[in-house]
Amino acid sequence: MATYAVGDVQGCYDALARLLEHLNFDSARDRLWFCGDLVNRGGNSLEVLRLVKSLDAQSIVVLGNHDLSLLAVSERKESDQRRANVDLARVLMAADRDALLAWLRHRPLLHIDRELGFAMVHAGLAPRWTLSIAKARAAEVERKLQGDDYRKLLKNMFGDRPAVWSKSLQGVDRLRAIINVMTRMRFCAVGGRMDFEAKGAPGSQQPGLYPWFEVPGHAPRDLPIVCGHWSTLGLFQGLGIHAIDTGAVWGGKLTALELGPEPRVHAVQCEARLAPRDRSAD
């Protein structure tokens, strides 16, 4: 039995199918972890959702910013949904859209498996968050997304403020800050203030900003963390972090990390869907 964590698929169905074939994935034996952003831009988001949902008993999926964006667009009027990019519009107009979206909405923001010895989040953790704190914060959002009043959150969750987590935050601002940390963060300051404009590789940021996992004085993280979201960072393994968004949708690779005492990288090359200059929209 093997467990594989898979980087941002973003609608690249063919690459995902080839990766599973490369892994000799056996649904009766193996398990998959998806680190978010199943959808958007790759051309086959509908097929990716259908495939991963069919593997629900064998997989864990954490929500990424593009997954949340799809859910938010699904709550707009139909004319606005039809104006979404072609990839997302195919999901929104599909006969099984309601089942797919309900399944997606019930995915967590954070997954922790202490027996296996790994945690997974799409983007990152606030500097002062231990995994236990992060689990509690994620649960606040998950309860709202999975509850009867989820539409209110989907209509109000996007925005760059608050840009820093504070335990004094309340209401939608509190939930938005948690979502921003876990699904959008790359760089932040020592105090935890996030910079949503800086999207390049480490070294390209302004002084005073650090990759979220390198912030001086951050809280101890008692398990290795698997994450995605940051295609310009690429494959990064160090400091207890396994970052595996290797830019599949940009013509890079789709990467799987075989989880275990000595994590092993597997990858398949993808055909380019978008030009590298478009990465600023990620």
Describe this structure in words.
A hairpin with a 4-residue loop joins strand 4 (110-113) and strand 5 (118-121). The mean pLDDT is 95. This protein has a five-stranded mixed beta sheet with strand order 3-2-1-12-13, with helices on one face. Helix 7 (131-146) packs across helix 9 (171-184). The chain is of the alpha/beta class. The protein has a single domain, classed as Purple Acid Phosphatase, chain A, domain 2 (4-Layer Sandwich). The protein has nine helices and 13 strands. It is globular, with a radius of gyration of 18 Å.
Q: What keyword list fits this structure?
A:
single chain; alpha/beta; five-stranded mixed beta sheet; 282 residues; Purple Acid Phosphatase, chain A, domain 2
What is the topology, as strand order, of the major beta sheet?
A: 3-2-1-12-13
Structural Rg: 18 Å
Through-space gap between termini: 34 Å
Number of structural units classed as domains:
1
The residue ranges in which pLDDT falls below 50 over 5 or more consecutive positions are: none
Instruction: Count all strands and give the number.
Output: 13
Question: In a few lines, what is going on in this structure?
Answer:
The chain has 282 residues and is α/β, with parallel strands linked by helices. Helices cover 31% and strands 16% of the residues. It is globular and about 45 Å long.
What is the secondary structure topology, with strand pairs?
Blueprint: E1 3-6, H1 13-22, E2 31-34, H2 45-54, E3 59-61, H3 65-73, H4 78-82, H5 86-92, H6 97-105, E4 110-113, E5 118-121, H7 131-146, H8 150-156, H9 171-184, E6 187-188, E7 194-195, E8 210-211, E9 225-227, E10 236-238, E11 241-243, E12 253-258, E13 264-269
Parallel strand pairs: 1-2, 2-3, 5-9, 9-11
Antiparallel strand pairs: 1-12, 4-5, 6-7, 6-8, 10-11, 12-13
Helix pairs in contact: 7-9
